Amino acid sequence: MALSLRTALDKNDYFGEKRPLTNRRPFLLCQKPRYFIENLPISIKLSLAGSFRYNIYESDIRDWRMPEGWRTFLNNFVNVGMIGYKFMGKAHSNAYRAVPMFLPDVPKPVMTAICGRDAEAVRAAGEQFGWESVETDWRQLVSREDIDLVDINAPSDAHKEIALAAAAAGKHIFCEKPLALSLADAKEMLAAAEAAGVKHMVGFNYRFAPAVRLAKKLIEEGRLGKIYHFRGLFLQDWIMDPDFPLVWRLQKEIAGSGSLGDLGAHTIDMARYLVGEFDEVIGMTETFIKERPMPTEMTGLTAKGSTEGPRGQVTVDDAAMFMARFQNGALGTFEATRFANGHRSTNSFEINGSLGSVRFDFERMNELEVFFSEDAEDVQGFRRVLATDAAHDYMHAWWPAGHTIGYEHTVTHEVHELMKAIAEDRQPVPNFADGVKCQAVLEAVERSAAEKRWVSLNEFEN
Ligand SMILES: NC(=O)c1ccc[n+]([C@@H]2O[C@H](COP(=O)([O-])OP(=O)(O)OC[C@H]3O[C@@H](n4cnc5c(N)ncnc54)[C@H](O)[C@@H]3O)[C@@H](O)[C@H]2O)c1
To answer: What is the pTM for the complete model shown?
Structure first.
């Protein structure tokens, strides 16, 4: 019986069947355009119609050549393979869904495959987040021909190996921060991505808050004058309890460093983005609680463990503070801690320039406090600018003015930049070069704390 493909697909919809989550290796997925399917040779359509499946497999079209014009069309889609499905895996999944709906001027990310080591858990996450297939080994995911972009949301110890494999396979790479366990590893990742000619991005999402973009615009337009000070804080309190278990974020071999690399990395990136490159740093770190119960269950930020059971050594800093001199002469102070009782996640900065100042606190991320010294003396003071107008970066995509956005929107904007960069054949910003520069500052602070001296970033050239 000759069923047209359209009938087959409609019938599939009619019976309410979901697209299958499968470990077979699809060549192209049907969500990559129906147009594509309608133009397939009739024999392939028949075999597809027979199977009532949405997927087109490599074996089905082995002897078939794609017409050149279709390539342009297919460039409107980027097939994503994502590793890790907890905190950031969920945030990235949400962004892949949101970009085509709210910021549709870029290629559509297709949620092709999600990867985790626990087959049952990753299948459940795949279903919940809307991924088309699952893998339980990232090597398998990276080797799939239908993946264009590898998205790494695993802890830092996994970043390098996955990124190098992805670059070798010619895939674009989106990697969470901090880029790597060490500066040497970060440099290796950048070199591999550059040699492979793929696009690479690092997950410094806070740059993408519209209020932060406004601060950047004011600085670039010279409206704050010469920048003198950057004051950055990233304060949390989730491990205050000495019996909170030893999650991966507290183990150096997995996380690289503690509050410094986890929280401080964001503040360092923000300072580089808004003020400029670092010249030298001096810092100190402390581990207040040196032993903790081993976890029986964990994600990066949550865990279960018994106070009766074995305990393990905390091998990272609980808190880090440092001062910095920037290449342009500005001075900076930085504080990153998980022991600031009452601070759930205070991620804030203040910048003072010769003509004005700005203040930002992520817990009130829609607002930027702005001071201009040119204001008449009798009304001088910090004003609260609500960065939700169409005049503010990205806000045209969301709601009417005054309708605020949240954490997840920063990741959506970040994914939009990545898709835009792929379409425009340029590197996205921030990319692995930014990851390397951040990693150099992290390492300089660690060296300074260990050796109790100022450390110049020149010590880390090449
Ligand atoms: N940009 C941000 O705002 C932000 C926030 C939190 C975390 N992060 C970064 O994101 C990354 C992940 O952190 P998280 O909080 O999502 O961690 P998490 O513990 O919540 O999730 C980690 C995920 O990685 C998976 N995983 C670990 N090793 C793996 C391997 N070898 N193969 C396949 N999967 C593996 C785990 O199963 C889990 O799904 C880290 O680099 C972290 O620093 C960034």
So the answer is: 0.87
Q: Tell me the per-residue pLDDT of 74-101, one tens digit each, with 9 for 90 and over.
A: 778 999 999 999 999 999 999 999 999 9
Pocket of ligand 1 (CB under 6 A): 83-89, 115-117, 138, 153-156, 158, 176-177, 203, 205, 262, 299-300
Q: For residue 238, with 0-12 CB atoms within 10 Å meaning exposed, 13-18 middle and 19 or more buried, which class applies?
A: middle
∠ CA 446-450-453, rounded to 5°: 90
Fold for 5-154, please state it.
Rossmann fold (3.40.50)
Between the CA of 84 and the centroid of ligand 1 the distance, in Å, is: 6
Give burial (CB, 10 Å; 0-12/13-18/19+) of 461: exposed
Cα(286) to centroid(ligand 1), Å? 24
What gap in Å lies between CA 166 and CA 147, rounded to an integer?
10
Which of 3.30.360.10, 3.30.70.260, 3.40.50.720, 3.30.420.270 is the CATH number of 206-455?
A: 3.30.360.10
CA-based R_g, the chain, Å: 24
ω into residue 293 within 30 of 0, thus cis?
no
